[in-house]
């Protein structure tokens, strides 16, 4: 059942391209996916690849786990891979420092925005 679902998600991703998101399963394991999410232009996330640690208020710096509701409490079987990747991309565009997993990063993000009057890191 899970394999059928992941194959359907892959067909959907290939058929309905979304700007800024590219994803595919590993050639030898349909349960391991590689994704490239292009961050918003003119930010530090513009060239992010999730192959390394990410300094972000909603990402655990130790293991890279992402704090987004649909990956935890609000996950439902109706969510497909593309929905999850879109949620992660939105989190990159609009971090949530009021609900951080990485407090130090959230404080830096909050203070940088207040001092510089801008919408994100410089």
From TrEMBL:
<dbReference type="InterPro" id="IPR016135">
    <property type="entry name" value="UBQ-conjugating_enzyme/RWD"/>
</dbReference>
<dbReference type="InterPro" id="IPR050113">
    <property type="entry name" value="Ub_conjugating_enzyme"/>
</dbReference>
<dbReference type="GO" id="GO:0005524">
    <property type="term" value="F:ATP binding"/>
</dbReference>
<keyword id="KW-0833">Ubl conjugation pathway</keyword>
<keyword id="KW-0547">Nucleotide-binding</keyword>
<feature type="active site" description="Glycyl thioester intermediate">
    <location>
        <position position="67"/>
    </location>
</feature>
<keyword id="KW-0808">Transferase</keyword>
<dbReference type="Pfam" id="PF00179">
    <property type="entry name" value="UQ_con"/>
</dbReference>
<dbReference type="InterPro" id="IPR000608">
    <property type="entry name" value="UBC"/>
</dbReference>
<feature type="domain" description="UBC core">
    <location>
        <begin position="1"/>
        <end position="122"/>
    </location>
</feature>
<dbReference type="GO" id="GO:0016740">
    <property type="term" value="F:transferase activity"/>
</dbReference>
<protein>
    <recommendedName>
        <fullName>UBC core domain-containing protein</fullName>
    </recommendedName>
</protein>
<comment type="similarity">
    <text>Belongs to the ubiquitin-conjugating enzyme family.</text>
</comment>
<keyword id="KW-0067">ATP-binding</keyword>
<dbReference type="InterPro" id="IPR023313">
    <property type="entry name" value="UBQ-conjugating_AS"/>
</dbReference>
